[in-house]
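Minutes, structural biology subgroup

Action item carried over from last meeting: produce the structure token record for Myb/SANT-like DNA-binding domain-containing protein (Hibiscus sabdariffa). EB confirmed the sequence was re-checked against the source entry. Recorded below for completeness.
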Amino acid sequence: MIRAELDRSFMETKRNKLLWEVVSTRMREMGYNRSAEQCKCKWKNLFTRYKGCETMEEEAMRQQFPFYNEMQTIFSARMQSMLLSESEGGAKRKAVQLSSDEEEDIMEEKELEKSSVKKKKQGKASGAAGSSNSIKEVLEDFMRQQIEMEMQWREAFDAREKERRSKEMEWRQKMEALEKERLLMDQRWYEREEQRRIREEARAEKRDALITALLNKLRREDHHM
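Output recorded by EB:
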């Protein structure tokens, strides 16, 4: 999305380093920490996969490359700009079609083609092999992405499970502490009750002893009388 918004600027300059810095900054603002070089490499990968879709069936193409519609929108907009600027010459039209980064990819592909002249001479057989290799690369990239997503999901699951176990352990520790505190309070209550009972019994014994002494004294006085 960010690259699409800056596409016209990419078409108008050959030195795109500052533009990729802008893309990197916009990504950070959206919460994705990516360097300018990482953004550039990602775009090259998307561009290569988009080109590889030319030899694929439409249904398979959209399954293997989920960003095809977004890439097609960008290049369709370029084509419209190219048609509007036809009067300015073929060189201008080429600049509108491909950015400097994409031209570098094309040049790299041409160099690879020059180094494989023998394969080109094989004609249709070579073309079919190239198409098969392209599909194989797309499938390998798709499987690699699936594996990365599976690993990320497992890491997130493990993190949630670890957090759950940590919270459960913390809850159990709190419950144990509360239970110990309750038992301690019960023990203190029983101790206070026991001390109160002992004091009550002591007072009762003193009271009984005093009453007995008074009764004995009264009896003695009556006897003397």
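Discussion: Residues 90-96 have pLDDT under 50 and may be disordered.
Next step: EB to file the record with the rest of the batch.
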